[in-house]
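user: can you give me the structure for this one chain? C-alpha coordinates are fine.
assistant: on it. calling the predictor now.
[tool input]
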Amino acid sequence: MGDYILEMIDVSKVFPGVKALQNITFKLRPGTVHALMGENGAGKSTLMKCLLGLYQMNSGKILKYGEEIIIRDPLEAAKNGIAMIHQELSTVNERSVAENIFLGRQPTKVRIFIDHKKMYQQAEELLKSLNIDINPYEKMGNLTVAKMQLIEIAKAISYNSEIIIMDEPTSALTTKEVEQLFNMIRNLKSKGVSIIYISHKLDEIFEIADEVTVLRDGHFIGTDYVKNMNVSTLITMMVGRKLDEMYPKVECPITDVIMEVKNLSAGDAFQDVSFELRRGEILGLAGLMGAGRTEVLETLFGLRKKTSGQIFIKGEEADIKDPADAKKHGLAMLTEDRRRTGIIPVATVCENVVVANLKEYVTKLHLINNRKMRTDTVEYVDKLNIKTTDTEVRVQDLSGGNQQKVLVARWLLTNPEILLVDEPTRGIDVGAKAEIHSLITKMAGSGKAIIMASSEMPEIIGMCDRILVMHEGRLTGILNRSDATQERIMEYATNI
Protein backbone atom coordinates (compact mmCIF):
# COMPACT_ATOMS: atom_id res chain seq x y z
CA MET A 1 0.00 0.00 0.00
CA GLY A 2 1.18 3.51 -0.81
CA ASP A 3 1.18 6.51 1.50
CA TYR A 4 -1.68 8.02 -0.46
CA ILE A 5 -5.24 6.79 -0.77
CA LEU A 6 -5.45 8.54 -4.13
CA GLU A 7 -2.94 9.78 -6.72
CA MET A 8 -3.75 11.43 -10.02
CA ILE A 9 -0.49 11.49 -11.98
CA ASP A 10 0.25 13.67 -15.04
CA VAL A 11 -3.43 14.01 -15.93
CA SER A 12 -4.18 15.86 -19.17
CA LYS A 13 -7.53 16.62 -20.77
CA VAL A 14 -8.03 18.34 -24.11
CA PHE A 15 -11.27 19.68 -25.52
CA PRO A 16 -11.52 21.02 -29.08
CA GLY A 17 -9.27 24.08 -29.10
CA VAL A 18 -8.72 24.03 -25.32
CA LYS A 19 -6.09 22.30 -23.13
CA ALA A 20 -8.17 22.09 -19.97
CA LEU A 21 -5.61 20.11 -17.94
CA GLN A 22 -1.90 19.84 -18.58
CA ASN A 23 0.04 17.22 -16.63
CA ILE A 24 -1.82 17.73 -13.35
CA THR A 25 -0.72 15.85 -10.24
CA PHE A 26 -2.97 15.53 -7.22
CA LYS A 27 -2.30 13.35 -4.17
CA LEU A 28 -4.69 12.68 -1.29
CA ARG A 29 -3.69 11.23 2.09
CA PRO A 30 -6.02 8.95 4.08
CA GLY A 31 -8.22 10.64 6.68
CA THR A 32 -7.42 14.20 5.61
CA VAL A 33 -9.20 17.21 4.13
CA HIS A 34 -7.42 18.33 0.97
CA ALA A 35 -8.56 21.65 -0.51
CA LEU A 36 -8.52 21.97 -4.29
CA MET A 37 -8.16 25.67 -5.08
CA GLY A 38 -7.98 27.92 -8.11
CA GLU A 39 -9.89 30.58 -9.95
CA ASN A 40 -12.95 29.60 -11.97
CA GLY A 41 -11.69 27.99 -15.14
CA ALA A 42 -8.50 26.76 -13.45
CA GLY A 43 -9.42 23.11 -14.10
CA LYS A 44 -10.78 21.98 -10.71
CA SER A 45 -14.12 20.71 -12.05
CA THR A 46 -12.51 19.07 -15.07
CA LEU A 47 -10.05 17.21 -12.83
CA MET A 48 -12.84 15.98 -10.56
CA LYS A 49 -14.94 14.90 -13.54
CA CYS A 50 -11.98 12.84 -14.73
CA LEU A 51 -11.82 11.25 -11.28
CA LEU A 52 -15.55 10.47 -11.38
CA GLY A 53 -15.38 9.04 -14.90
CA LEU A 54 -17.57 11.77 -16.37
CA TYR A 55 -14.61 12.74 -18.59
CA GLN A 56 -11.96 10.40 -19.93
CA MET A 57 -8.37 11.57 -19.56
CA ASN A 58 -6.27 12.03 -22.68
CA SER A 59 -3.24 10.95 -20.66
CA GLY A 60 -2.24 10.21 -17.09
CA LYS A 61 -3.25 7.61 -14.54
CA ILE A 62 -5.16 7.23 -11.29
CA LEU A 63 -3.77 5.19 -8.39
CA LYS A 64 -5.52 4.01 -5.23
CA TYR A 65 -3.14 2.98 -2.50
CA GLY A 66 -0.43 2.72 -5.13
CA GLU A 67 -2.39 0.45 -7.48
CA GLU A 68 -3.64 1.79 -10.81
CA ILE A 69 -7.41 1.89 -11.25
CA ILE A 70 -9.49 2.57 -14.35
CA ILE A 71 -12.60 4.73 -13.96
CA ARG A 72 -14.83 4.86 -17.04
CA ASP A 73 -18.01 6.15 -15.44
CA PRO A 74 -19.48 7.27 -12.06
CA LEU A 75 -20.56 3.69 -11.28
CA GLU A 76 -16.94 2.54 -11.43
CA ALA A 77 -15.96 5.56 -9.30
CA ALA A 78 -18.52 4.49 -6.69
CA LYS A 79 -17.20 0.90 -6.77
CA ASN A 80 -13.77 2.36 -6.03
CA GLY A 81 -15.11 4.25 -3.03
CA ILE A 82 -15.30 7.70 -4.66
CA ALA A 83 -18.38 9.91 -4.31
CA MET A 84 -19.17 13.57 -4.95
CA ILE A 85 -21.57 15.97 -3.29
CA HIS A 86 -22.37 18.57 -5.90
CA GLN A 87 -23.01 22.25 -5.23
CA GLU A 88 -26.48 21.84 -6.71
CA LEU A 89 -28.02 19.12 -4.54
CA SER A 90 -29.93 16.43 -6.44
CA THR A 91 -32.45 15.46 -3.79
CA VAL A 92 -35.96 14.04 -4.32
CA ASN A 93 -37.88 16.34 -2.01
CA GLU A 94 -41.15 14.39 -2.02
CA ARG A 95 -39.41 11.24 -0.78
CA SER A 96 -38.27 10.45 2.76
CA VAL A 97 -34.72 10.79 4.05
CA ALA A 98 -34.25 7.01 3.96
CA GLU A 99 -35.58 6.78 0.40
CA ASN A 100 -33.14 9.47 -0.68
CA ILE A 101 -30.20 7.67 0.93
CA PHE A 102 -30.96 4.34 -0.77
CA LEU A 103 -32.53 5.68 -3.98
CA GLY A 104 -32.17 3.09 -6.76
CA ARG A 105 -30.66 0.46 -4.45
CA GLN A 106 -33.33 -0.15 -1.83
CA PRO A 107 -33.06 -3.43 0.08
CA THR A 108 -35.56 -5.99 -1.22
CA LYS A 109 -37.38 -9.07 -0.03
CA VAL A 110 -38.53 -11.91 -2.24
CA ARG A 111 -36.22 -10.29 -4.83
CA ILE A 112 -38.71 -7.73 -6.20
CA PHE A 113 -40.40 -6.07 -3.22
CA ILE A 114 -38.78 -3.17 -1.36
CA ASP A 115 -38.05 -4.08 2.24
CA HIS A 116 -39.15 -0.76 3.77
CA LYS A 117 -38.58 -1.93 7.35
CA LYS A 118 -34.99 -2.89 6.60
CA MET A 119 -34.38 0.31 4.60
CA TYR A 120 -35.52 2.59 7.43
CA GLN A 121 -33.61 0.50 9.97
CA GLN A 122 -30.40 0.76 7.92
CA ALA A 123 -30.93 4.50 7.43
CA GLU A 124 -31.44 5.00 11.17
CA GLU A 125 -28.27 3.03 11.99
CA LEU A 126 -26.27 4.95 9.38
CA LEU A 127 -27.43 8.36 10.62
CA LYS A 128 -26.77 7.37 14.24
CA SER A 129 -23.23 6.22 13.38
CA LEU A 130 -22.54 9.63 11.81
CA ASN A 131 -24.11 11.59 14.70
CA ILE A 132 -26.77 13.00 12.39
CA ASP A 133 -29.94 13.68 14.38
CA ILE A 134 -32.49 13.47 11.57
CA ASN A 135 -35.60 11.27 11.42
CA PRO A 136 -35.25 8.85 8.46
CA TYR A 137 -39.04 9.10 7.92
CA GLU A 138 -38.89 12.90 7.49
CA LYS A 139 -39.72 14.15 4.02
CA MET A 140 -36.57 15.50 2.35
CA GLY A 141 -38.28 18.71 1.26
CA ASN A 142 -38.89 19.65 4.90
CA LEU A 143 -35.17 19.81 5.70
CA THR A 144 -32.89 22.84 5.65
CA VAL A 145 -30.17 22.99 3.00
CA ALA A 146 -27.60 22.18 5.68
CA LYS A 147 -29.46 19.02 6.71
CA MET A 148 -29.84 18.04 3.06
CA GLN A 149 -26.05 18.35 2.81
CA LEU A 150 -25.67 15.98 5.77
CA ILE A 151 -28.02 13.46 4.15
CA GLU A 152 -26.00 13.63 0.92
CA ILE A 153 -22.89 12.89 2.98
CA ALA A 154 -24.68 9.96 4.62
CA LYS A 155 -25.69 8.72 1.18
CA ALA A 156 -22.06 8.87 0.04
CA ILE A 157 -20.96 6.95 3.15
CA SER A 158 -23.65 4.32 2.50
CA TYR A 159 -21.76 3.44 -0.69
CA ASN A 160 -18.77 2.73 1.61
CA SER A 161 -17.08 5.78 0.11
CA GLU A 162 -13.52 6.32 1.22
CA ILE A 163 -13.16 9.56 -0.74
CA ILE A 164 -15.82 12.28 -0.79
CA ILE A 165 -15.60 15.33 -3.04
CA MET A 166 -17.41 18.40 -1.67
CA ASP A 167 -18.04 21.18 -4.17
CA GLU A 168 -18.79 24.56 -2.53
CA PRO A 169 -20.66 22.82 0.31
CA THR A 170 -21.25 25.98 2.36
CA SER A 171 -22.48 28.31 -0.39
CA ALA A 172 -26.05 28.44 0.98
CA LEU A 173 -25.41 27.78 4.67
CA THR A 174 -25.64 30.01 7.73
CA THR A 175 -22.69 30.34 10.11
CA LYS A 176 -24.28 27.85 12.53
CA GLU A 177 -24.93 25.37 9.73
CA VAL A 178 -21.34 25.70 8.49
CA GLU A 179 -20.08 24.74 11.94
CA GLN A 180 -22.41 21.74 11.92
CA LEU A 181 -21.01 20.65 8.56
CA PHE A 182 -17.44 21.12 9.76
CA ASN A 183 -18.14 18.94 12.81
CA MET A 184 -19.43 16.32 10.41
CA ILE A 185 -16.26 16.55 8.33
CA ARG A 186 -14.10 16.16 11.43
CA ASN A 187 -16.13 13.10 12.36
CA LEU A 188 -15.55 11.62 8.91
CA LYS A 189 -11.80 12.27 9.20
CA SER A 190 -11.75 10.38 12.49
CA LYS A 191 -13.28 7.40 10.68
CA GLY A 192 -10.54 7.49 8.03
CA VAL A 193 -12.60 9.11 5.25
CA SER A 194 -10.69 11.49 2.97
CA ILE A 195 -12.29 14.73 1.75
CA ILE A 196 -11.52 16.73 -1.38
CA TYR A 197 -12.84 20.18 -0.51
CA ILE A 198 -13.54 22.79 -3.20
CA SER A 199 -14.35 26.32 -2.03
CA HIS A 200 -13.70 29.96 -2.83
CA LYS A 201 -13.99 30.93 0.83
CA LEU A 202 -10.41 31.25 2.01
CA ASP A 203 -11.29 31.42 5.71
CA GLU A 204 -12.89 27.97 5.45
CA ILE A 205 -9.74 26.50 3.95
CA PHE A 206 -7.63 27.62 6.88
CA GLU A 207 -10.18 26.26 9.34
CA ILE A 208 -10.96 22.83 7.92
CA ALA A 209 -8.26 21.76 5.42
CA ASP A 210 -4.99 19.92 6.10
CA GLU A 211 -3.42 20.39 2.67
CA VAL A 212 -4.00 22.60 -0.35
CA THR A 213 -3.40 21.98 -4.05
CA VAL A 214 -3.65 24.98 -6.38
CA LEU A 215 -4.42 24.86 -10.10
CA ARG A 216 -4.16 27.81 -12.50
CA ASP A 217 -5.16 27.85 -16.17
CA GLY A 218 -5.10 24.07 -16.33
CA HIS A 219 -1.63 23.80 -14.76
CA PHE A 220 -0.49 22.38 -11.45
CA ILE A 221 0.93 25.23 -9.35
CA GLY A 222 1.74 23.47 -6.11
CA THR A 223 0.71 21.56 -2.99
CA ASP A 224 1.50 22.43 0.60
CA TYR A 225 0.27 21.96 4.14
CA VAL A 226 -2.19 24.66 5.25
CA LYS A 227 -0.06 25.36 8.32
CA ASN A 228 2.74 26.53 6.01
CA MET A 229 0.54 29.08 4.20
CA ASN A 230 -1.30 32.33 4.77
CA VAL A 231 -4.04 34.13 2.84
CA SER A 232 -1.58 36.24 0.87
CA THR A 233 0.53 33.31 -0.35
CA LEU A 234 -2.54 31.29 -1.27
CA ILE A 235 -4.03 34.16 -3.28
CA THR A 236 -0.74 34.70 -5.10
CA MET A 237 -0.61 31.00 -6.03
CA MET A 238 -4.20 31.12 -7.31
CA VAL A 239 -4.09 34.25 -9.42
CA GLY A 240 -0.40 34.51 -10.27
CA ARG A 241 -0.17 38.02 -8.85
CA LYS A 242 -0.55 39.77 -5.54
CA LEU A 243 -3.97 41.20 -4.88
CA ASP A 244 -3.02 44.11 -2.68
CA GLU A 245 -6.32 45.71 -3.59
CA MET A 246 -9.08 43.19 -3.18
CA TYR A 247 -11.46 46.11 -2.90
CA PRO A 248 -10.33 48.66 -5.48
CA LYS A 249 -12.56 51.43 -4.19
CA VAL A 250 -11.50 54.83 -5.42
CA GLU A 251 -12.87 58.17 -4.39
CA CYS A 252 -15.25 59.50 -7.03
CA PRO A 253 -17.64 62.47 -7.06
CA ILE A 254 -20.85 61.85 -5.16
CA THR A 255 -23.37 64.39 -6.37
CA ASP A 256 -27.13 64.89 -6.29
CA VAL A 257 -29.77 62.63 -4.77
CA ILE A 258 -31.17 60.33 -7.46
CA MET A 259 -33.36 58.13 -5.26
CA GLU A 260 -35.18 58.74 -2.01
CA VAL A 261 -36.97 55.97 -0.13
CA LYS A 262 -39.46 56.92 2.59
CA ASN A 263 -40.91 54.48 5.12
CA LEU A 264 -40.88 51.58 2.67
CA SER A 265 -42.46 48.33 3.92
CA ALA A 266 -43.22 44.95 2.37
CA GLY A 267 -45.42 42.97 4.75
CA ASP A 268 -43.44 40.92 7.26
CA ALA A 269 -40.26 41.07 5.15
CA PHE A 270 -39.22 44.56 6.29
CA GLN A 271 -40.77 47.74 7.69
CA ASP A 272 -40.23 51.52 7.55
CA VAL A 273 -36.95 51.61 5.62
CA SER A 274 -35.86 55.13 4.64
CA PHE A 275 -32.68 56.36 2.92
CA GLU A 276 -31.25 58.55 0.17
CA LEU A 277 -29.04 57.41 -2.70
CA ARG A 278 -26.74 59.76 -4.63
CA ARG A 279 -25.11 59.59 -8.05
CA GLY A 280 -21.60 58.13 -7.84
CA GLU A 281 -22.37 56.49 -4.49
CA ILE A 282 -22.04 52.82 -3.55
CA LEU A 283 -24.54 52.31 -0.75
CA GLY A 284 -24.15 49.06 1.19
CA LEU A 285 -26.91 46.92 2.69
CA ALA A 286 -25.59 44.78 5.55
CA GLY A 287 -27.17 42.45 8.07
CA LEU A 288 -27.42 38.83 9.08
CA MET A 289 -29.32 36.26 7.05
CA GLY A 290 -33.04 37.04 7.14
CA ALA A 291 -32.46 40.71 7.98
CA GLY A 292 -34.37 41.85 4.89
CA ARG A 293 -31.57 43.01 2.57
CA THR A 294 -32.63 41.04 -0.49
CA GLU A 295 -36.28 41.87 0.12
CA VAL A 296 -35.56 45.61 0.05
CA LEU A 297 -33.82 45.29 -3.32
CA GLU A 298 -36.62 43.10 -4.68
CA THR A 299 -39.21 45.70 -3.65
CA LEU A 300 -37.27 48.55 -5.23
CA PHE A 301 -37.09 46.54 -8.47
CA GLY A 302 -40.75 45.53 -8.49
CA LEU A 303 -40.15 41.83 -7.81
CA ARG A 304 -41.91 42.18 -4.45
CA LYS A 305 -45.00 44.25 -3.75
CA LYS A 306 -44.64 47.10 -1.29
CA THR A 307 -47.32 47.42 1.37
CA SER A 308 -46.56 51.03 2.29
CA GLY A 309 -44.04 53.81 1.75
CA GLN A 310 -42.80 55.87 -1.20
CA ILE A 311 -39.99 55.70 -3.74
CA PHE A 312 -38.83 58.93 -5.38
CA ILE A 313 -36.52 58.95 -8.40
CA LYS A 314 -35.05 62.27 -9.48
CA GLY A 315 -37.53 64.04 -7.21
CA GLU A 316 -40.66 62.40 -8.61
CA GLU A 317 -42.60 59.57 -7.00
CA ALA A 318 -42.14 56.29 -8.87
CA ASP A 319 -44.90 53.69 -8.85
CA ILE A 320 -42.89 50.51 -9.47
CA LYS A 321 -45.17 47.49 -9.80
CA ASP A 322 -42.85 45.18 -11.75
CA PRO A 323 -39.33 45.01 -13.25
CA ALA A 324 -40.58 46.63 -16.47
CA ASP A 325 -41.57 49.70 -14.44
CA ALA A 326 -38.21 49.62 -12.67
CA LYS A 327 -36.35 49.52 -15.98
CA LYS A 328 -38.36 52.52 -17.27
CA HIS A 329 -37.18 54.45 -14.22
CA GLY A 330 -33.54 53.59 -14.96
CA LEU A 331 -33.09 50.68 -12.52
CA ALA A 332 -31.31 47.40 -13.14
CA MET A 333 -30.74 44.47 -10.77
CA LEU A 334 -28.20 41.70 -10.37
CA THR A 335 -29.98 39.00 -8.38
CA GLU A 336 -28.52 36.96 -5.54
CA ASP A 337 -28.89 33.58 -7.24
CA ARG A 338 -27.50 33.98 -10.74
CA ARG A 339 -28.27 30.36 -11.66
CA ARG A 340 -31.96 30.43 -10.73
CA THR A 341 -32.98 34.01 -11.36
CA GLY A 342 -30.16 35.48 -13.43
CA ILE A 343 -28.65 33.58 -16.32
CA ILE A 344 -30.55 31.50 -18.85
CA PRO A 345 -28.23 28.47 -18.72
CA VAL A 346 -29.02 26.86 -22.08
CA ALA A 347 -29.03 30.20 -23.95
CA THR A 348 -25.90 31.63 -25.56
CA VAL A 349 -23.74 34.41 -24.19
CA CYS A 350 -25.23 36.73 -26.82
CA GLU A 351 -28.82 35.81 -25.95
CA ASN A 352 -28.15 36.32 -22.24
CA VAL A 353 -26.57 39.73 -22.79
CA VAL A 354 -29.35 41.18 -24.96
CA VAL A 355 -32.43 39.58 -23.37
CA ALA A 356 -33.30 42.61 -21.20
CA ASN A 357 -33.02 44.97 -24.15
CA LEU A 358 -34.63 43.00 -26.99
CA LYS A 359 -36.89 45.85 -28.16
CA GLU A 360 -33.80 47.77 -29.24
CA TYR A 361 -33.00 45.08 -31.80
CA VAL A 362 -36.35 44.98 -33.57
CA THR A 363 -36.26 46.77 -36.96
CA LYS A 364 -39.05 48.79 -38.52
CA LEU A 365 -39.94 45.67 -40.50
CA HIS A 366 -40.33 43.79 -37.17
CA LEU A 367 -37.23 41.71 -37.80
CA ILE A 368 -34.45 40.97 -35.33
CA ASN A 369 -31.16 42.73 -36.07
CA ASN A 370 -28.87 39.80 -35.25
CA ARG A 371 -25.76 41.64 -36.46
CA LYS A 372 -26.28 44.48 -33.97
CA MET A 373 -26.96 41.95 -31.19
CA ARG A 374 -23.63 40.24 -31.87
CA THR A 375 -21.77 43.55 -32.24
CA ASP A 376 -23.06 44.86 -28.90
CA THR A 377 -22.31 41.55 -27.20
CA VAL A 378 -18.74 41.46 -28.54
CA GLU A 379 -18.26 45.05 -27.31
CA TYR A 380 -19.21 44.10 -23.74
CA VAL A 381 -17.35 40.79 -23.84
CA ASP A 382 -14.22 42.81 -24.62
CA LYS A 383 -15.05 45.65 -22.23
CA LEU A 384 -15.71 43.35 -19.25
CA ASN A 385 -13.02 40.79 -20.14
CA ILE A 386 -15.52 37.93 -20.34
CA LYS A 387 -13.56 34.74 -21.01
CA THR A 388 -15.40 32.88 -23.76
CA THR A 389 -14.33 31.41 -27.07
CA ASP A 390 -17.42 32.75 -28.83
CA THR A 391 -20.61 34.72 -28.16
CA GLU A 392 -22.59 31.65 -29.28
CA VAL A 393 -21.24 29.51 -26.43
CA ARG A 394 -23.93 28.48 -23.93
CA VAL A 395 -23.59 30.58 -20.81
CA GLN A 396 -23.79 27.48 -18.57
CA ASP A 397 -20.41 26.45 -19.96
CA LEU A 398 -18.72 29.58 -18.56
CA SER A 399 -17.16 29.88 -15.11
CA GLY A 400 -19.18 31.49 -12.31
CA GLY A 401 -17.23 34.73 -12.48
CA ASN A 402 -17.77 35.02 -16.23
CA GLN A 403 -21.47 34.25 -15.84
CA GLN A 404 -21.67 37.12 -13.38
CA LYS A 405 -19.96 39.44 -15.87
CA VAL A 406 -22.47 38.38 -18.55
CA LEU A 407 -25.23 39.57 -16.21
CA VAL A 408 -23.39 42.86 -15.65
CA ALA A 409 -23.17 43.25 -19.43
CA ARG A 410 -26.91 42.56 -19.74
CA TRP A 411 -27.83 45.40 -17.45
CA LEU A 412 -25.18 47.85 -18.62
CA LEU A 413 -26.66 47.46 -22.08
CA THR A 414 -29.94 48.92 -20.74
CA ASN A 415 -27.94 52.01 -19.67
CA PRO A 416 -29.30 52.14 -16.08
CA GLU A 417 -28.81 55.06 -13.75
CA ILE A 418 -29.33 52.97 -10.60
CA LEU A 419 -27.87 49.48 -10.21
CA LEU A 420 -29.05 47.09 -7.48
CA VAL A 421 -26.59 44.28 -6.81
CA ASP A 422 -27.31 41.40 -4.44
CA GLU A 423 -24.33 39.29 -3.31
CA PRO A 424 -22.34 40.24 -6.44
CA THR A 425 -19.40 37.91 -5.73
CA ARG A 426 -21.13 34.87 -4.20
CA GLY A 427 -19.61 31.61 -5.44
CA ILE A 428 -16.87 33.14 -7.56
CA ASP A 429 -13.14 32.95 -7.07
CA VAL A 430 -10.88 35.55 -5.56
CA GLY A 431 -9.51 36.84 -8.87
CA ALA A 432 -12.98 37.23 -10.40
CA LYS A 433 -14.12 38.98 -7.21
CA ALA A 434 -11.48 41.66 -7.70
CA GLU A 435 -12.66 42.12 -11.31
CA ILE A 436 -16.32 42.46 -10.25
CA HIS A 437 -15.32 44.94 -7.54
CA SER A 438 -13.40 46.94 -10.12
CA LEU A 439 -16.41 46.98 -12.46
CA ILE A 440 -18.69 48.22 -9.68
CA THR A 441 -16.23 50.97 -8.78
CA LYS A 442 -15.95 52.04 -12.43
CA MET A 443 -19.73 52.20 -12.74
CA ALA A 444 -19.91 54.45 -9.68
CA GLY A 445 -17.13 56.58 -11.14
CA SER A 446 -19.20 57.06 -14.31
CA GLY A 447 -21.99 58.60 -12.23
CA LYS A 448 -24.21 55.57 -11.67
CA ALA A 449 -25.76 55.06 -8.24
CA ILE A 450 -25.33 51.59 -6.74
CA ILE A 451 -26.96 49.74 -3.86
CA MET A 452 -25.00 46.63 -2.94
CA ALA A 453 -26.24 43.97 -0.52
CA SER A 454 -23.62 41.55 0.75
CA SER A 455 -23.18 39.11 3.61
CA GLU A 456 -19.39 39.52 3.41
CA MET A 457 -18.49 42.35 5.75
CA PRO A 458 -14.97 42.94 4.33
CA GLU A 459 -16.64 43.44 0.93
CA ILE A 460 -19.19 45.88 2.35
CA ILE A 461 -16.56 47.84 4.29
CA GLY A 462 -14.08 47.81 1.42
CA MET A 463 -16.47 48.89 -1.33
CA CYS A 464 -19.18 51.13 0.10
CA ASP A 465 -19.35 54.88 0.81
CA ARG A 466 -22.14 54.39 3.34
CA ILE A 467 -23.59 51.27 4.90
CA LEU A 468 -27.21 50.66 5.92
CA VAL A 469 -27.44 47.91 8.53
CA MET A 470 -30.62 45.89 9.01
CA HIS A 471 -31.90 43.64 11.78
CA GLU A 472 -35.07 41.53 11.48
CA GLY A 473 -36.58 43.69 8.77
CA ARG A 474 -35.74 47.08 10.23
CA LEU A 475 -33.01 49.62 9.57
CA THR A 476 -30.94 49.82 12.74
CA GLY A 477 -27.97 51.96 11.73
CA ILE A 478 -26.22 53.96 9.02
CA LEU A 479 -22.42 54.10 8.94
CA ASN A 480 -20.07 56.20 6.86
CA ARG A 481 -17.14 54.40 5.26
CA SER A 482 -14.68 56.04 7.67
CA ASP A 483 -16.61 54.83 10.72
CA ALA A 484 -17.38 51.31 9.54
CA THR A 485 -15.82 48.31 11.28
CA GLN A 486 -16.95 44.70 11.46
CA GLU A 487 -17.64 45.17 15.17
CA ARG A 488 -19.88 48.21 14.67
CA ILE A 489 -21.77 46.52 11.83
CA MET A 490 -22.36 43.46 14.02
CA GLU A 491 -23.64 45.67 16.85
CA TYR A 492 -26.32 47.08 14.54
CA ALA A 493 -26.92 43.72 12.80
CA THR A 494 -27.68 42.04 16.13
CA ASN A 495 -29.37 45.17 17.53
CA ILE A 496 -27.32 45.00 20.72
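assistant: here you go. The chain has two domains: 6-239, 257-493. The chain has a mean pLDDT of 87.
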